[in-house]
Please model this.
Amino acid sequence: MKPKAEPLPVGPAEIPRKRYFAIGEVSEICGIKPHVLRYWEQEFPQLKPIKRRGNRRYYQFDDVEMVRRIRSLLYEQGFTIGGARQRLREARAERIEAANTTALNGATSVNPAKPASSSVPSRKEKLHDIRTELEDLLKRWPV
Model:
């Protein structure tokens, strides 16, 4: 009978500073099996290792940190896969909101009643302008 492995403490200091990690290395670092990593790639869109020749997976440092976050949510905090996926989405939204708030606080002339992006044309407006311009060009150049 195999002795149970002690859970690895989660911390960025334990991840070696390398550019790429093979699936076996990530498996050892994070204390999970390679088939679990492959399954998590299907379940968590945030986890996208680079695939090279022969469909070999190479994880970057950020991917290894993401695996550790997922492992913590599932094994230590008791989330289901769906709950962990939702928690990661919420955490990402919080980081984006915090970054936007920081950017807005750094600006000197922000009108709080009006969003800062209102002066910048939206994607839909840009596409409308491009379409109008293309239609004008078609009128000038007979086909």
